[in-house]
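This part of the workshop introduces the protein records we will be handling. Each record describes a single protein and holds just a pair of labelled lines. Instead of coordinates, the fold is spelled out as a row of discrete tokens. To make this concrete, we reproduce a full record directly below:
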Amino acid sequence: MRTSDVLRELRGSTWYGEALKSQDFRGVYPHSRKSIFDTTIKFARKDLILKRQLFPIGGECQQGWWKLAPLGRDRAIRDGQSWTPKFTTRAALIEIAEAEVVEERVQ
């Protein structure tokens, strides 16, 4: 599965129920303006690679793709229906419009 498809699926799905609002998807880091949501998903991918549940980029998987490794496939079969998302609260969440106002004040 392509990374862009993973991000689109997570943004448009009911995986997170009412826990994530549209403002959660618009949050950006103040200095880089990179999406907090996208960055969190990319780190989740890295964590799954370290747990050997996804293949790293290389012979089995090309860049931009998510490919389940045997351990990941086993986990998906075992935990697929019972999986629930886990969240942390980030006080540094800044919406794009707010980040622009903050930047103007600093200058």
About this structure: The CA atoms of residues 9 and 15 lie 9 Å apart. The beta strands are 27-28, 94-95.
